[in-house]
Amino acid sequence: MATRLAAASICALTLAAVTACGASSSSDRPASSGVTAAALTSYVNAVQKVRLPVNALLGGADAILDPYHDHKISPKVAATRFGNLEGQFAIYARQMQEITPPDATLARINKPYAQTYFFEDSYLATLASDLHEGDFDNLPNTQGAQRLAIIRWRIALEVLADRLHVTLPANLQQAGRGEIAPSIEGS
Question: Phi and psi (nearest 5°) for 179?
Fold first, then answer.
């Protein structure tokens, strides 16, 4: 099973290495929105410090779900392991909420993206519970909303970066693509 999370992020979200996000020009003139290259770079770097570890964490979901699906681990063991994964994700979700860009434009761009972490945490917590029970009817279907928020976030950053001549990390191109939430389906 190939679990890929966009962005988050979410999701997620890819397993690319952290790359520097810097301005390609020494100019720090604000874009028409008032955002400076330095503010954009600082914001993206802060998000990357959360987003990339989240990608790696969620990429490990297969190590739990594959053996569960193949009946190599019990529902109780899978639920416990997934509960631990969700607990770690909850720490990252809190860190994402602590990112507060001082610029109003970046704050507006960040808010819906940061909210995708609530969707993902809810999904992961429900999945941990459902693994124990073996009934997956309770899983929230938030992938569409998450994907849309992540893609809007990525495009807004790209527009600002173009205006400011800032080079964004290459791995941001993957945000909003691929799987958003771990799947209970087999490989």
Answer: -70, 145
Q: Are 5 and 57 in contact (CB under 8 A)?
A: no
Q: Alpha-carbon distance 57 to 92, whole Å?
A: 10
Phi, psi at residue 59, to the nearest 5°? -65, -20
Integer Cα distance of 131 and 37 in angstroms: 45
Cβ distance 92 to 117 under 8 Å? yes
Task: Say which residues have a Cβ less than 8 Å from residue 159's Cβ, sequence separation at least 6.
Answer: none
* 110-148 pLDDT, tens digit each: 999 999 999 999 999 999 999 988 888 888 888 888 989
**pTM to 2 decimal places:** 0.76
Q: Closest Cα partner for 48 from 154, 165, 121, 142?
A: 154
Q: What span, in angstroms and rounded, lies between the C-alpha atoms of 83 and 77?
A: 10
What's phi and psi for 104, nearest 5 deg? -65, -35
